[in-house]
Each structure stands twice: as structure tokens, then as C-alpha cells.
Amino acid sequence: xxxxxxxxxxxxxAMAAIGAFCGSSSGSNPGFRRAAAALxxxxxxxxHQLVYGGGDVGLMGxxxxxxxxxxxxxxxxxxxxxxxAEVSHDGLTTLEIVGSMHERxxxxxxxxxGIVVLPGGxxxxxEAFEVITWNQLxxxxxxxxFLDVDGYFAALFSFIAKSVEAxxxxxxxxxxxxxxxxxxxxxxxxxxxxxxxxxxxxx
Length: 203
Known about the structure:
7-stranded parallel β-sheet, alpha/beta, 7 strands, Rossmann fold
């Protein structure tokens, strides 16, 4: 496991690679899809690259289509069984095929300078919290920001605060998970420096 190739030069630069974790469904709120499309467009307009799960369905398809529509470079990472299920996007700059979901997460993180988490379900939360945990353990050091839509992540951040209060998460580690409702600010955070803190077993 390793962090971004730009990890030693953290500043907001053009052509950063923005990893997006998001739902393979669109959800019940039309605002979810609008936010995904706004993020994809902002990534392309900002001369960044999009890295995502490779699908053409749900919020995954929306973020990819918006980036492609603005001339952006888009890399998808998908497992063999999902490609076989014919849910991969056929309009990507690059589609990488891996053997397992764990390989998929690890590869997406290896390709990304920062991670933006859009609304999603169990799979999206699994991806997000594994990357937060890798940061917490000092295995990587990249920004992670949740792009909120109509308070979708409010309960999640309440849980994080409760975990700190209950003594299961240190306050400095809670800050690994950042929050914004602005796609542009999400990109600024994802292309900026990671939150400064010491790994879990130090200090």
C-alpha cells in the first residue's frame, strides 16, 4: 500500500487524479445525481483526471459521463465479474480490470491524489472507511472528503463524533474524514494536503 505519487508535493495543482467513490444506484433524491454530475464536470473543467469504479450505472455513470462530456480524462477500475455483468462504461479513457473488490479499492487509491465520497450505500461506505482506516494506520496519506447532498452524511458525521466521545476514535483521526456540500471545495480539499496527524499507534 502506498500513497499518491504527488504525496511529497501537496498543493492544489492541475492534472491531479481525483478518486470518486459513489453509488451504483442513483438514489431517491434527484440531487444526488446532480451532485455527481457537478463533481464530474468540475474535475474535467479543473484539468484534473477522474478515477472511479468503472460503471455506467447510477451515480458512477453520472460522474463519469459529466467528466467525459467536458473532455476530461477518466480511468475506471472494475472487477472481472462486474465487467462480465456488462455494467462497465465503454466510453472511458482507460478501464483497468482487476480480480477482486479489494484489489479494486487498492488500485483506485494508488491512482488517486485525493478521494471524494458521494452518496452511496454499503459498498461506498466500505470503500470510504477502508481508505480512512489506511490513513489512520499510516499506510497512506491522502485527503478524504465527503460531498454532502441535503444532509445525507449528517448522521454519519454524528456517528464519527459519537465514536470520539465514546473513546473509540481519537479526535485527530476523526478529522481524516472531511465534509463539504460544494463540488468545487471537494476538489480543493482532495487536491490539497492531507490532514496532519500521527498514525494510530504513535503518540
